[in-house]
Structures are given as structure tokens and as C-alpha cells.
Specification:
Low-confidence stretches: none
Number of domains: 3
Mean pLDDT: 78
Largest sheet: 3 strands, antiparallel
Oligomer: single chain
Strand order of the largest sheet: 2-1-3
Helix content: over 70%
Order of helices and strands: EEHEHHHHHHHHHHHHHHH
């Protein structure tokens, strides 16, 4: 199969540009004719370099613009086509044009974005589909933007917290390497002679072993770090591995609670929008979990929705849930009985967002001192290991 670029006129004589996949030029022309398009020109597309994932700020802007298009009631394919004309980034322009073409050809919005899942955040297509199906796309996109900003703030806090210690650590690595490579060997020779065959303490022997293998040690550290980064990226490949990745994140102190409250806030607000759109509870759960972009919640939400469809009570059916908060299930139950479900879910979402801000503040307070103290302990270990034999020598001479 090949890609062909074309220019054609619609039945309303509107100029249309796009691309189509076909086995041959004749097959492409036949497909366009079946679409009731009058072909002006068509040619085989030149091979294109693969498009990399778009930046966070670039995606945030695109999401805001898409929300404005949806709010204005403009059909997405038409709005995207017009939006691409105002974008300076060739990469983003190409992506939007390709998506608009597929939507014009009848491809579902989830499928169009799923084909480009390497370019957009995970489950973005599902979120858009949920918004379209419920008629709440502008609200869902606005909510997504707010949560992206929360996530961006968290990343910024972590970056700012580690940037200074990382700079200090980098300089310390250079200094420590110099010390281990050129200074410690001199001490090793001197101390060995002065102790006259006496056995060095374990800490000092460890430092001398590190000194003899310092380059091998750094190579091993770099290899392990690279392996960890590669493994972490591979964990995003499938729903099962993404659930494993979530489990690891949830076990991290502070960050785990921050992530848990963040996805719970997304779920609460998404379900509130579904309720206002008149969706039943099983659909609210399925689409809400999709919008939360948590594979654990998607799995639990699907099972929970099926049990509710079979007549089970949400609190009883949700006994197995570990990712969907028990408080949310209780709020749904009470809100349904009192006809306050939408308000309860919105309030719950705001509560979770407040907790996210609290954990962000904790990161700002505790992370920088923790990193600096850890670095100080390493440096103290090196100094102590060098001075212990000297104390041993001085004690021997005094005796």
C-alpha cells in the first residue's frame, strides 16, 4: 500500500486537499471517485520522516484550541483544517492535516488519534471519543488542560528541587573522580607503608577498591541508569505494562499519593460531566475511567460497570476496587439517592485537586533537603574512610 496526495473538488465545488492510502494510482483515483470527489491532481506522496511526539506546551496549546473549536460548534474536521493554517510548526501542521483528512474520510476520532499514539498523550483518543459521545467535549478538554497544568507544575517542582543538587552532584562527580583517580592512590601507598602490614579497616579498603576501579564503576552506573530509563519507557507499550508502571508510581512516597489524587480528580470531574449529559452510571464509569487515563481505573471501571448493569449495588460491586476510591463510590451512592450526584462528583473532584496541591507543596519542602543530605552522606563517607587510617596510625604512635 502507498500514500497518494491529491487536490479535488467536493460536490459543493469546495477545494479539498489530503492524502489517501491505496494499492496503486488507479485504485486511489477509484476510491476518490467513490467519495464523489472531482480530482484536480494526484501523485504519490514522497517518503516522510517519522514525526516525533509533540512537546507538552505545544500539546497544551493544541488542546486549548481544540476546546475552542468544539465550544464554537464547528465540526472537528473543518476546525482542524482551519487550525492547521495558523500553525507555524511544520510537524504539528502535518499531524493536524492528517487527522482532519481521516475524519473527513469517515474515520472515528479515537482511531484517528490512536494511529498517532506516539505523538499524543496515552488514551487521548479515548478522551476525545468520550467527549464527543456525551456532547461534553469542550468541558472535557478544558478539564484535561487543567490537569495537564497540574502535572506540569508537579514536574516543574521536581525539576527545580533536583536542579541545584544535580549541579552540585555533577561537580562532586568530577571532584570525586579526581580524588579517587589521583589522590587516593597516593594515600593508599603512604598508609600501607605507615601501617607496616597492619590490616586496614573495611571502610578504607572499600574506598581503595573503588579507587582502583573508578572508571568501571561509572560505566556500570551509566549502564544501570540507561537500563532503568529504557525499561521505564517500555512499560508504556501495552495496557498491562502501563498498569505495572502505575503500580510502581503508586508505591513511591508522596509522588504515589499525588498521582492517585490526580487521576481520582480527573475521574470525578469526568463522571460529573457524564451525569450532566444524561449518561447512565455504567457509561459514566467507562467513559470517566477512560478520561482519567489510568489503565488500572479503566480495568476496574469496566468490571464495575458490567456488575452494575447486572443489577448490583455500586458499593457492593466495588468491593474489589483498589484504584477507584471508596469515597467516590460512596459519593455516587449517596448522590444518586439524594439527587445530588453531579454536585457531589464536582465537589469530590475539587477536594482531590486540593490534595494534589498539598502533596506538591510537600515535594517543594522535602525533596531538595533530602537530595542534599544524601549527597553529604556520600562525601562524609569518603572523608571518613581516608582519615580513619590516620587516626589508627596516630593512636599507634601515641601508644
Amino acid at each position: 500500500m502507498a500514500i497518494f496526495e491529491y487536490k479535488a473538488l467536493t460536490a459543493e465545488d469546495r477545494l479539498m486537499e489530503g492524502s489517501i492510502e491505496a494499492s496503486s494510482l488507479e485504485n486511489a483515483k477509484e476510491l476518490l471517485t467513490q467519495m464523489q470527489l472531482k480530482i484536480n491532481s494526484i501523485q504519490k506522496a514522497k517518503p516522510r520522516q517519522p514525526v516525533s511526539a509533540i512537546g507538552r506546551n505545544e500539546f497544551l496549546l493544541f488542546n486549548q484550541q481544540l476546546a475552542s473549536i468544539a465550544k464554537a460548534g464547528i465540526p472537528l474536521e473543518k476546525g482542524l483544517r482551519e487550525l492547521s493554517k495558523d500553525i507555524n510548526s511544520a510537524k504539528m501542521k502535518r499531524l493536524i492535516d492528517e487527522i482532519a483528512t481521516e475524519l473527513e474520510n469517515g474515520t472515528g476520532i479515537e482511531q484517528a488519534f490512536e494511529k498517532r499514539k506516539k505523538n499524543f498523550p496515552p488514551l487521548y483518543g479515548r478522551i476525545l471519543k468520550a467527549g464527543v459521545e456525551t456532547g461534553r467535549l469542550p468541558e472535557m478538554l478544558t478539564s484535561l488542560n487543567r490537569h495537564i497544568e497540574v502535572s506540569t507544575k508537579t514536574r516543574k517542582i521536581i525539576f527545580e528541587a533536583i536542579s541545584y543538587p544535580a549541579t552540585v552532584l555533577f561537580l562532586a562527580v568530577i571532584l570525586v573522580t579526581f580524588v579517587f583517580r589521583y589522590v587516593v592512590p597516593q594515600f593508599k601507598l603512604i598508609l600501607t607503608e605507615m601501617l607496616d602490614g597492619e590490616r586496614l579497616n573495611l571502610m578504607t579498603r572499600s574506598v581503595f577498591i573503588i579507587s582502583d576501579n573508578i572508571w568501571l564503576l561509572w560505566l556500570a552506573i551509566v549502564a544501570v541508569a540507561g537500563l532503568v530509563i529504557l525499561t521505564w519507557s517500555l512499560l508504556s507499550a501495552t495496557p498491562k505494562t502501563r498498569r505495572t508502571k502505575e503500580s510502581i508510581i503508586l508505591k513511591l512516597p508522596v509522588i504515589g499519593n499525588l498521582y492517585r489524587n490526580s487521576v481520582s480528580a480527573k475521574l470525578s470531574e469526568a463522571m460529573a460531566m457524564m451525569v450532566s449529559a444524561g449518561c447512565d452510571m455504567p457509561m459514566c464509569l467507562r467513559l470517566g475511567c477512560d478520561s482519567a487515563a489510568s489503565e488500572k481505573m479503566i480495568l476496574e471501571g469496566g468490571i464495575l460497570a458490567s456488575q452494575i448493569e447486572q443489577g448490583s449495588n455500586i458499593l457492593e460491586a466495588g468491593q474489589f476496587c483498589k484504584s477507584i476510591p471508596r469515597l467516590l463510590l460512596y459519593s455516587v451512592q449517596m448522590g444518586s439517592q439524594r439527587n445530588e450526584l453531579q454536585d457531589n462528583l464536582y465537589s469530590l473532584g475539587q477536594m482531590y485537586l486540593q490534595q494534589v496541591e498539598g502533596y506538591q507543596n510537600r515535594l517543594q519542602i522535602f525533596l531538595p533537603p533530602l537530595i542534599i543530605v544524601t549527597l553529604g552522606i556520600v562525601i562524609f563517607f569518603i572523608i571518613l574512610a581516608i582519615f580513619l587510617p590516620m587516626i589508627q596510625i596516630i593512636t599507634g604512635m601515641a601508644g
